[in-house]
Amino acid sequence: MERVEFLPPEPGEVPEIDRVAGIPHPREMLSLLGQEAAERQFLQGYTSGKLHHAFLLAGPEGRGKATFAYRAARFLFEEGASAEADALFGAAQPESLAVAASAKATQLIARESHPDIAVLKRRYDPKNKRFRAEISVEDTRETLQLLTKTAAFGGWRVVIVDAADDLNTASANALLKTLEEPPAKTVFFLVAHQPGRLLPTIRSRCQRIDFEPLSAEHLATLLRAFGRPVPDLSALEIGAEGSIRRALRKGSGGAAQMTLAVERVLASLPRPSGREIEAVTEPLRGGADGLEALSDLMDEIERFLAREARARLALPQPNAAMADVAELWAKLNDEARKVEALNLDRRAFAMRALDELSTLVSGAQR
After folding, report:
1. CA separation for the pair 133, 352 (Å, rounded)
2. What is the helix, strand, coil percentage profile of the chain, to 5?
């Protein structure tokens, strides 16, 4: 059984946007399971002396993209400094991105105090007690100020964008300018859950690394390490779809009930009953539990639309039919983020979403 190593989370005053209660943040995770190919791809560029300046880390949430970004950053700070000091690698080239828990880079990154790394993400508004809907251009420019300074430790500088999906047009263009003329010894990691939504010009400046679904065995190993119950492996493989985030959510009773309610209402489209709609919208009330229920709703809608897109491949004009599905998903995804960030009525959003999904299904049945 593979060992999972992580640093104990340090509670902070500002909540993390992607933290599941009691689970280490990606910057605290020292292990990365199931992504050996991604690690090899990065190491090949590094050891050849031709490391690309920007990486697009692509794949659904919960596969380890952010964990990889912090892991690679620790490696660059520690291994890179060692290599420069010796002017060569020595007897053996590095075979993994692993860095010891006691290393200076590990400790500084975990405490968010490393001077040569910057993280661009949606900011938390302590006054309104919620996250902003998007990454603003002002936040982007402020984050990129790191690159106007000399590296504090004389080595690499790293910028992590988590997630690049949250960039708006202005902030994406601000980032693009730096990607087009990158400073020396700087590496960008763009975490992208839906890379197709990014500007083509940003995608073209990055080397893409795709993240594979985690196996049921890897998911079970992570659940055990986090002190969570482990379901039957076959059920875990089907329900989690290769994502530790989904596996963690599926392990809670509320998530299981919400998933069942959403599956029922989606199966009844385009004419769901009032009782089925209420079963989906009622859990959206309240605070943190309501936000988790919204996340579960969007997960199931995404799965539903993916099935719709596959079904439309057999139609006479599949591209146009699939474009309708993609357009609806992008619209609902954007609206859901605004609902979360601005604390809008989640129940009203869910009813609008179900109405639009009903229209989509009705059109396909004609």
Report:
1. 19
2. 55, 10, 35
Q: Give 297's pLDDT tier (boundaries 50, 70, 90).
A: very high
Cα angle 166-169-173, degrees, rounded to a multiple of 5: 105
**Cα(219)–Cα(215) distance, integer angstroms:** 6
Tokens of 8: 């104990």
The Cα–Cα gap between 118 and 99 comes to: 19
Q: Are 31 and 125 in contact (CB under 8 A)?
A: no
Cβ-Cβ contacts under 8 Å for 70 (sequence gap 6 or more): 26, 27, 29, 109, 160
Alpha carbon dihedral 305, 262, 346, 333, in 10-degree steps, equals -20
Distance CA 186, CA 356 (A): 44
Give the angle 190-195-94 at the CA atoms, nearest 5°. 45
pLDDT for res 255: 74
| Prediction pTM value | 0.85
Q: 350 is written with which tokens?
A: 């869910």
Rounded-to-integer distance, Cα 6 and Cα 29, Å: 4
Helices in 226-317 by DSSP H: which ranges?
A: 233-240, 244-250, 253-267, 274-281, 288-311
